[in-house]
């Protein structure tokens, strides 16, 4: 009976793993195609994002697949260039809080109950007390469109700072919970008994076991970040024109939506497809992570 139960469990795990792999792979392939198009496309096409290429509000054609906007600019080129910017900002805006928040959460979990732990958790609670997307939007609006830094387009530093100041809190809470769970496991107790330093234990045993949980959330967080970036132009914030960005292209096209819907459809489709791709990857990794537990 025990062998039959074990065999059934193994078979179930294999079925779930196969389904998860298909979900994750489908999302990864779709996202890879989107990234490749957005990164390589503008390099292969000589037309600039600000060039006047035809009659304003021309309908889609073989020359201009997404038509032209109210200024006679190629919407397809602007959509690809905007995707390169949006995806780059989303990547940095997720990875930095992921790494920082995970380390803070691990540190908090290792000193659970201490003054440092309580201070970190109260800070996290204060940040999470506000609706997350509204808090990010508010901070980005306060930073404004004129903020510049190094080679980044105007408006992008404000978005990144808003993400850095808020997003780490969720990763810290997840990492703290995982750390508290891992501290009770036999392999960590054995590592402590063997005389390894805490830094070595964290690097070899805790961080690799905590990271999958925070990575799973990061994939879902990426969808939120892309949505927030696209929403900022409607609040008078975000990337400074004429730099193309998916949200700003849609914002500019709203006034001619009834006459030239193609101005909004192109970047809107890219946002939806990117969200679907990342969501598939997140769903696949989440099911696999839960099944592993």
From TrEMBL:
Keyword Transmembrane listed: yes
Compartment annotation: Cell membrane
GO cellular component, one term: plasma membrane
Major place of residence: membrane
InterPro entries listed in its UniProt record: BP-dependent_transpt_permease, MetI-like, MetI-like_sf
Transmembrane segments: 20-45, 89-112, 124-143, 149-174, 186-202, 222-239, 260-281
Entry membrane topology: Multi-pass membrane protein
Entry keyword annotation includes Membrane: yes
Keywords per UniProt: Cell membrane, Membrane, Transmembrane, Transmembrane helix, Transport
Domain ABC transmembrane type-1 residues, every copy: 83-282
GO BP terms: transmembrane transport
Highest taxon above the source species: Bacteria
Gene3D superfamilies, per database record: MetI-like
Family: Belongs to the binding-protein-dependent transport system permease family.
Protein name: Nickel ABC transporter permease
Protein species of origin: Mycolicibacterium mageritense (Mycobacterium mageritense)
Species classification: Bacteria, Bacillati, Actinomycetota, Actinomycetes, Mycobacteriales
